[in-house]
Design goal:
The chain is built from 5 helices and 21 strands. The protein has about 375 residues and is an alpha+beta fold. The structure holds copper (II) ion.
């Protein structure tokens, strides 16, 4: 067994891409010179709001219908490289995280607003990181303008011109896939200023919103079939990439670990409440399904200029996409929210629970006879 010695410098730049990195940074600087002054002039008079991000599955307070005109919404995210435990079997991974969670926090703004992100890479980290916003417009989604080494921070502003839910993820040159499958991704929701609408143009509102980030992990095993552990992210790199290239994840989980959304961590709702479920998968296809319920309104590919589908049983979210499903609960009980590749749900971890309180409706479902001995 070989232990790869990856130097700090190699990790920062990506093994064979130091030259590319330099080019990207130069291009980014040139882009910045052209674009930044004009944008600053345009937005100088806009009101600013600071939003403190919260850990998923929760979402920061926000308006569904915007009051007032466009504003600059300021967010701050601190990158944290941390060892996390994925299951009860002791599988560990060096996660790279936005703000310490997998997925990173959901940001909510309205169409026409500006997102202004301060991205901080503390000196305690080992790696260079950046951020590519699928919701933004511009080369690399901001990835070329946000490459921060440990000990650096940067500020990126982009205009939210496309309404929908969108993935964001880290994308450092030469190591994009590894960072994304190390957990470094999240989502943005850009609401229409006048809120969500059904396909007839009627308003759709939600009482609660949850953010579920589905993550595939690729944890190496040793020759005895035990999960391998590493002292640093860099030491895990070569083995992890070898597993990644099999395209066979060791874990497919919601919110960073098997069971992160079950038991005491189950999502909660009440009968009669309308709940919005945002679901992102930055790397791999998925097919969410609410066992015992339906997708009343589903934007499977998450873009609000398209009408939602109604009454779905399962919906398909391609890798690199965030989707939104809205459902009004009608019965109490424990609902499983799963990736309906049931092997991924029940063997690899992609399942959560929604515990719903309220009164049972016999009209919708009734046990006419409890299990009992067969009689003629
Ligand atoms: Cu990263």
């Amino acid at each position: 067994m070989t232990t790869l010695n990856v130097s700090r410098r190699t990790m920062l730049a990506g093994a064979a891409v130091a030259g590319v990195l330099t080019q990207v940074r130069r291009a980014a600087a040139e882009t910045g010179e052209v674009l930044t002054p004009a944008a600053a002039t345009d937005v100088a008079g806009l009101p600013r709001v600071q939003v403190k991000l919260v850990d998923p599955p929760f979402v920061h307070a926000h308006e569904q219908v915007a009051t007032g005109g466009p504003k600059i919404v300021e967010f701050r995210m601190v990158i944290e490289e941390k060892k996390i435990t994925l299951d009860n079997d002791g599988a560990e991974v060096w996660a790279s995280t936005f703000n310490g969670t997998v997925p990173g926090p959901l940001m909510v703004v309205h169409e026409g607003d500006y997102v202004e992100l301060t991205l901080v890479n503390p000196p305690s980290n080992e790696l260079m990181h950046n951020i590519d916003f699928h919701s933004s417009t511009g080369a690399l989604g901001g990835g070329g303008l946000t490459q921060v080494n440990p000990g650096e921070q940067c500020v990126l502003r982009w205009k939210a011109t496309k309404p929908g839910v969108f993935v964001y993820h880290c994308a450092p040159p030469g190591m994009v896939a590894w960072h994304v499958v190390s957990g470094m991704n999240g989502a943005v929701m850009v609401l229409p200023r006048d809120g969500l609408k059904d396909r007839d143009g009627q308003p759709v509102k939600y009482d609660r919103v949850y953010y579920i980030g589905e993550q595939d992990f690729y944890v190496p095993k040793d020759e005895n079939g035990k999960w391998k552990t590493y002292d640093t992210p860099g030491e895990s790199y070569e083995d992890t990439v070898a597993v990644m290239k099999t395209l066979t994840p060791s874990h497919v989980v919601f919110n960073g670990a098997v069971g992160a959304l079950t038991g005491d961590n189950a999502l909660k709702a009440k009968v009669g409440e309308t709940v919005a479920f945002i679901h992102s998968q930055a790397n791999r296809d998925t097919r969410p399904h609410l066992i015992g319920g339906h997708g009343d309104y589903v934007w499977a590919t998450g873009k609000f200029t398209n009408p939602p589908e109604h009454g779905l049983e399962t919906w398909f979210i391609p890798g690199g996409t965030a989707g939104l499903m809205i459902y009004k609960f009608q019965q109490p009980g424990v609902y499983a929210y799963v990736n309906h590749n049931l092997i991924e749900a029940f063997e690899l971890g992609a399942a959560g629970h929604v515990v719903v309180e309220g009164d049972w409706d016999d009209d919708l479902m009734k046990q006419v006879m409890a299990p009992s001995p067969i009689s003629s």
